[in-house]
Amino acid sequence: MDLINQPERFDELPEERKEILLKWISNNLLPIRSFNTHYTSYSIKRWIEDDYFTNGEFKGAMLAAGYKVQDKTKDNWVFNISQRSPIIMKLKFKGEL
Predict the structure, then answer these.
(1) Which among 36, 45, 71, 84 could bridge 58 via Cys, Cβ 3.0 to 4.6 Å?
(2) What residues contact residue 27 under an 8 Å CB cut-off, 6+ apart?
(3) What local confidence, expressed as pLDDT, does residue 50 receive?
(4) What local confidence, expressed as pLDDT, does residue 57 receive?
(5) For residues 52 and 42, is the Cβ–Cβ distance under 8 A?
(6) How does pLDDT run along the chain (97 residues), one tens digit per residue?
(7) Cross-strand partners of 69
């Protein structure tokens, strides 16, 4: 796995950047029991409008937020996020999904 994709990258972020990312996850995603294979870590992180985070930083933040991963051997992870998550509903309403 490339360095940019490693979830440990989240731990290297300054506290302020960690908080921004965790707050975005908390405000925009909802957990479910099953995995949502429609979206990966790479596609979800691109929904963050106000800032840029690497795939690894985002994956680490999702772990820190308590989300589960379907297959950690892949570069782009699939998580247990709901189709009713606020960001998914917003993007569907805007016709962007």
Answers:
(1) 45
(2) 86
(3) 80
(4) 97
(5) no
(6) 688 899 999 999 999 999 999 999 999 999 999 999 999 999 999 999 888 999 999 999 999 999 999 999 999 999 999 999 999 999 999 999 9
(7) 79
Total residues found in the chain within this entry: 97
Which pLDDT score, from 0 to 100, does residue 81 have?
Answer: 98
Angle at which helix 86-93 crosses helix 15-28, to 10 degrees, equals 70
CB-CB contact of 25 with 62 (8 Å): yes
∠ CA 79-82-86, nearest 5°, is: 115
Cα 67 to chain center, whole Å?
9
Q: Tokens standing for 42? A: 């790479």
Exposed / middle / buried, residue 20 (Cβ in 10 Å: 0-12, 13-18, 19+): middle
- How many angstroms separate the Cα of 14 from the Cα of each of 24, 48, 62, 82, 86? 16, 18, 16, 29, 26
